Amino acid sequence: MFGLPTILAAPGGTELLVLIILGGLLLGAGIWLIATYNGLRRAQVRAQNAFSQIDVQLKRRHDLIPNLVETVKGYMSHERDTLEAVIRARSQAASALGVVEGGAMGIASMAALANASGALDGALNRLIGLVEAYPELKANTNALQLQEELASTENRIAFARQAFNDSVMRLNESIVVFPSNLVAGMFGIREMGLFEATADERASVSVKF
Q: What is the domain range of residue 152?
């Protein structure tokens, strides 16, 4: 095995040493680049997987709402504006969810989803508040079960949202700090938006029995 003095003593030894050093630096840089890229992609996948848990619960809520409206509308026919507001808010929330499911998970699209979800929660709170004024509905087993399922779904959404936001914060931090931000920019890895609760969502869907 040739030592450093032997390399330097050989013809062109200095140039060879420079090439060895450069080769080592390039190899080290390549290993760092691959490791950083894989780390960013893994963080991205974890965040996307965390959102899939929210997605399941949001879809469940969207499926429950028409059933609740159908159950109560016979008793609340003169509360047409409230019922229509719930259905309209549900449609807008479902549309915003569809955009995110299509792959748009940036800051703007996630904010739009959070706002639409918050508007839906506000409409649901108003509807359920009115339900309390109808003794027949308070005794309706189907209406009570649907409200209970909605409240349970809201709790699952809250837990899933926290896990998602934690994953997104870790990803976004890696994207903006040096030197991993260079790799993120090189490969077009963008920050993801948080799914933050609005004021209406923080109030949550209130269900009384």
A: 46-203
Do 116 and 93 form a contact (C-beta atoms < 8 A)? yes
Domain contains 151: yes
- Rounded to the nearest 10 degrees, the angle between the axes of helix 141-176 and helix 107-131 is 160
Q: How many domains does the chain have?
A: 1
Helix, strand and coil percent figures for the chain, each rounded to 5:
80, 0, 20
Query: Dmax of the chain from CA atoms?
Result: 100
CATH number at residue 51: 1.20.1440.20
Q: Which residue bears the tokens 């399922």?
A: 149
In angstroms, rounded to a whole number, what is the distance separating the alpha carbons of residues 54 and 196? 12
Please work out, in degrees rounded to the nearest 5, the angle formed at the alpha carbon of residue 80 by the alpha carbons of 75 and 86: 100
* C-alpha distance across the termini of the chain, in Å: 83
Mapping DSSP onto H, E and C, the string for 15-38 reads HHHHHHHHHHHHHHHHHHHHHHHH
Residue 202 DSSP symbol: H
Give CA–CA dist 155/199, Å, rounded: 16
Reference 61, options 209, 207, 205; nearest CA is 205
Mean pLDDT, the chain cut into blocks of 10 residues (209 residues total): 54 68 85 94 94 94 93 85 93 94 89 93 90 83 90 92 94 93 93 78 45
**DSSP letter (8 states) at residue 78:** T
- The reported pLDDT for the residue numbered 204 is 46
